[in-house]
Amino acid sequence: MQTLPPTLPTDGVFASVFPSGIQPPKHRRRFAPKAAALIPDIQRTLKDQLRLLLGIGNESFVYGHSRMVTNAGAPFHSHFGSSGIEYRIREPTAVDHAKHITRENSSPLWSMLSQWRSAVGSETVMKLLATVLNELMTEFVTWSYAGIYQEGLYHHLEFWIQHLFSRIAYKVLGCLDDSFNAQRVPETEIKKWKDMAVARLGALRVDELFEIIVDWDATAPAIEDLRQFTTNPATRGYLTHDFANVLQTRLLHPGASTIEILQLYIAITRSFRVLDPKGVLLDRVARRVRRYLRERDDTVKVIVTGLLADTAPQENGREPSSDPEVLSELALELHRHNARDNTTEDSEFDWNNMEWLPDPVDAAPDYMKSNKNTDVIGSLITLFDTKDVFVKELQSTLAERLLKNKPDFNQEISVLEHLKIRFGDSALQACEVMLRDVLDSRKVDHVIRRDLEKEGTSGRMDEEDGGIELHAKILSRLFWPSMLEQSFTVPPEILERQESYEKGFGALKQSRKLTWLNAIGQVDVELELEDRSLREEVLPWQAAVIHAFQDKAAQGEDQPVSKSVSQLATELEMSPTLARSACIFWVSKRILHEISANTFIVLESLPSGTEFDTNMTNDSSTETQASTAAAAEAAALAAAKEAEEAERKQKMAMYHQFVVSMLTNQGSMPLARIAMMLGIVVPGGFPFSNEELKEFLAGMVKEGVLEVGNAGVYKIAS
């Protein structure tokens, strides 16, 4: 004699599958070894037969007739993906029932039940049945619905529970218990099984939630499945906990770009607003994502660039080309959803709101009200504690766009008008001044050129300088962000044009004076070579370098002009890094050629039949040209970094006297207090970190200006 194997279900599983009228035996039955050995085979066979009867694993399984009935819907296929394009399952007719029951009765299961009942007893078979049905319900949900996101799924699952699962379960019970009435399944039992199936479907959708949100446009119906699942705090907590762990593993790591994280954050915001309009689930999930985004250095830049992305259709009627490096969804969202649309006040004192509901019981103590920052833009704006971070980056990005040669700035005007609603007029005052400067500059430039033409100065100089036209954008110094200045000497003909322009501006604005920022702007360059011509819009310092190559007096008319980087740096008074960057840029345009290290010549004509020509003109040279362009870009970045570092050192040197004055007047101070005081006394705030300040103070210590006392306190050297 031996006890029942541990594969039999517990009483909890038995009660969850069967109605309250069916009770497990009070005492475990003992069997002979031969009878006990039959139990695994009985369970395996029972599962195989029930799988066939329930239509699991058979995509061609149909309940009743397989033909379509006009205006009544499609027949039921156990596999949801095989239901065709008509997802409305028709209610079975008497003919459907009769046809299916006839097919069911031909199953060998019914004769097997009586044999198993005699071998191991009804109670044992019932326990095996509970285990098998519990497993088959999960198996059916996974097999029929995994990866399929379509409308009508919940109705499909209800059909399977009502007409197949519950009816066959009661039919098997009737064969095992003669006193059991299996003719009619109680509605309470059907509802219990439906709730179990919905829980299995919800667990499946929770496992798939990351894929659902990534492909949100195609998987939106799956959110309805989760709405049926998240009806109590336990399931809601399971969803948010599981999804937050998935996000930590699959998204919130250095391998994912900031744009990818923000794209998924947008999809999470949209989908969870549909799932839970009160925003409690979104509040739980988004906390970890928002905290990670705050730690990324480029988060603000990506958001602002996306807000200013061009969303206007092209001239041919097509949608604007999507740049993978720009989050253009934000621009579309900004124009589609206006903050003023959030007029509903979710407040206990809004007596006219008949749809008001209290906050959910599982809301966090610091849970934000649902109608505050409900849209994507509002959520991103509140990502940081202060809006100044966004406003500062907006000024910087807007400055770059406004300084470009564009026919109009309608996109920038529209974005500013939308953002003024969210940030307020005062926060964007500097941006308004910047935009007004650029628009007014066009009028001022037109008037100055008109006056110069009347005097004859403009036309005469255009002829003498080979048709050079100078257009200026006049900026208000106090309202524009600081710009990286790379010093160099402009050509003499440009200096003459600038002096003439200054006189015209002085006559128009007598109380103001122009200060030229030669490194900022664009130059439209037209180059005429022996066998080709090139017209390109380049940066001013790139134009100055190629202009230096046009002097042939020193080398003769027949010799190509060659210059070294050191010669260019001396002649143009620019840094060698910047000069080499410009030369490499023109090499990528096939205007210059590097004949030796840091020495370049002009390619007046492209050689033919040579190895150089083969490398430069064949289709196979795409990789070479790409590497040259990459080298030019890297050189430009190196030059910009060098100029930025020089500007940073210059600014730090400016704070030298601030530090000396503070320590002289107020005595010794630790690093943190010096940083705090500089933040107070420096106009515009101290822009450097404590590490940079520490490095700067270390330099002052090395110079003998300061001393470091106990506990890292700085004081004036005695």
UniProtKB/TrEMBL annotation:
Keywords: Cell cycle, Cell division, Mitosis, Ubl conjugation pathway. Transmembrane segments: none annotated. PROSITE patterns: CULLIN_2. Residues 380-575 form the Cullin family profile domain. Coiled coil: none annotated. Pfam families: ANAPC2, Cullin_AB, TPR_ANAPC2. SMART domains: APC2, CULLIN. GO terms for molecular function: ubiquitin protein ligase binding. One of its GO terms (biological process) is ubiquitin-dependent protein catabolic process. One of its GO terms (cellular component) is anaphase-promoting complex. Gene3D superfamilies: Cullin Repeats (1.20.1310.10), Cullin, Chain C, Domain 2 (3.30.230.130), Winged helix-like DNA-binding domain superfamily/Winged helix DNA-binding domain (1.10.10.10). Belongs to the cullin family. This is Anaphase-promoting complex subunit 2. It comes from Cladophialophora yegresii CBS 114405.
